[in-house]
Amino acid sequence: MRTDICERLGIEYPIFAFTPSEKVAAAVSRAGGLGVLGCVRFNDTEELEETLSWLDDNTDGKPYGVDVVMPMKIPTEGKAVDLKAMIPEEHISFVERTLQKLGVPPLPEGEGREGVLGWLHSVARSHVDVALNHRPVLIANALGSPPVDVIEQAHDAGVLVAALAGAAKHAASHVANGVDIIVAQGYEAGGHTGEIASMVLTPEIVDAVGPDVPVLGAGGIGCGRQVAASLALGAQGVWTGSIWLTAAEYDLSQGTGIRDALLRAGSGDTVRTRVYTGKPARLLKTKWTDAWEAEDAPTPLPMPLQNLLVADAHNRMNSGDDPDTISMPAGQIVGRTNEVRPVEQIMAELVSEYEETVARLEKIRG
Q1: Does residue 16 sit in helix, strand or coil?
Q2: CB within 8 A of 146, min separation 6: which ones?
Q3: Position 117 confidence tier, pLDDT thresholds 50, 70, 90
Q4: Is 341 exposed, middle or buried (0-12, 13-18, 19+ CB in 10 A)?
Q5: Domains in the chain, ordered, with CATH?
Q6: How confident is the model at residue 80 (pLDDT cuts 50, 70, 90)?
């Protein structure tokens, strides 16, 4: 399964694992892939410092990456309290009514009030600054190209930059800005995603950026056959996310509702919606997402206002044990996350099924 990108990043397998869990990221890197830590959940740079120090010490010297959320053209500065003043009362009232209707209890006093500030441009820049004090080999941006000065900052530190793209024209623009690796994120993917399926998107992006720019296939990848298919489409590796949500190592001290919802979900139990951040993102379909599709629901706000609006609601729902009232990004591959397995086993199964698939295709070629 070794491709050119393996040599470039010092990894055994071209399997990239996006995850908000440092324990999952470390386990993937130790197993030969590249664990990529999602940084958006870190409001406190000190906490991010501690987490990356932990990664430095628990990856057996193997490489890892980080993922930030940074819009290139619309920097949003200012304190969260100023932005919250821009949120209409209609939206605030709707959220509270919906939580009451769903029977979601409040958090203990003092918890969950700040919101996730990692969606702010200024906070994402601080994440980059902190990361470059450690030893990531890759900084990925979930919203496409980061600003050119951030790309140059990473390159000066010897760190490669990856950017997600949902269309060939976006990928070409990323490369023109100096991005090193393109993640071709198909419609099936969890989180922020475009409108083109990976079977169509991956070869389009490979052709658009040319042979010198490595492309990672993303969206709907959860088994070795799908890894083989992505490489057959021209990708040098795969970017995975949802398959790690039920890894045994995944633990962000939340309620049991999230894991129960993931374990029971089928591939048809997701919805692409703007209710999570203000930009289209694929989530598990629950009573919460259904409420936002009702006739009396307001239109979701633009990023970052929507996330600031719903952050406390998400904390309340995700801290509980009801799988019907959670808010969780997940891709259509969630139909394969129906058991809890250690990262090492997931990685081993991806690799072995890939090898079996390639061997079977060799026989067909005859």
Answers
A1: strand
A2: 68, 70, 72, 128, 139, 161, 163
A3: low
A4: middle
A5: 4-365 (3.20.20.70)
A6: very low
